[in-house]
Structure formats: C-alpha cells, structure tokens
Design brief:
Number of domains: 2
Shape: extended
CATH topology of the largest domain: HU Protein, Chain A
Helix content: 25-40%
Low-confidence stretches: 114-123
Number of strands: 5
Number of helices: 4
Strand content: 15-25%
CATH class of the largest domain: Few Secondary Structures
C-alpha cells in the first residue's frame, strides 16, 4: 500500500474554489479571492520560516538541509547536493485516524503535539 495513490482524481485549487462557492454562497469571484488569500497567507508564513499548524489537519514546517555529498545512481559519481530549505507536512492524529477509518472524536489538539519532533538534524 505504501506509495500508492488511493484516490481516483486530484483536487485542484479550482475545485476548492468551487466548493467554497457552493457551500458558503459567496460569488465565484469572492470564493476565489478567499482561497487565494488563504494560500498566499500560508505561503508567506512558510517563506518566513514559521510553522503552520492547522488543528485537526496537520503541521507544515520548513526545515533546513545541510550541504552533503550524494551519488549519481546511474554513474555512481559523487556529486555535491547544495544546502536548501524543504517543506515537510506532518498530518495530525485526527487526520491519520480519519484516513484509516478509525474513531477520532476522542483525539485532541494536544495529541498532535506528541507528533512534533525537534527541528534539529532531520534531513
């Protein structure tokens, strides 16, 4: 099961806008602006290196990766992999339980904090 895409399709930003339009009753333009505002806010926060925690969904964290030596898998040649920032997502316990069809009503936000791990030495 690991690595398999179990869904039948991909949800796009346009799909999210359409859902907001249908469920909240905003005009399509207002729904689009709201969705854009949400995504732009998330991007700005992450670009600043801050963590985004969405209760019942998960945490987005920007981590720094140090420069290191890697290998070209085709030639075996050593190459330098530059330092960079990467985005990680850690789903909440609630989201994990929902995905696995488990009971999640008893889970709280504090359960998500147990999944947090320190920001040091994770590549």
């Amino acid at each position: 099961m690991a690595g398999q895409n179990l869904g039948k399709s991909t949800v796009t930003k346009a799909d999210i806008v359409e859902n907001v339009y249908q469920k909240i009753g905003f005009s399509k333009k207002e729904a689009s602006e709201l969705v854009e505002l949400c995504f732009n806010t998330l991007k700005d926060v992450l670009q600043n290196g801050d963590k985004v925690k969405i209760s019942g969904f998960g945490n987005f964290v920007v981590r720094g990766k140090n420069e290191r030596i890697g290998r070209n898998p085709q030639t075996g040649e050593q190459i330098k992999i530059s330092a960079r920032r990467v985005l990680t997502f850690r789903p909440s316990q609630v989201l994990k339980a929902m995905l696995n069809g488990e009971e999640y009503a008893h889970l709280t936000d504090e359960d998500d904090d147990e999944d947090d791990y320190d920001d040091n030495n994770h590549e």
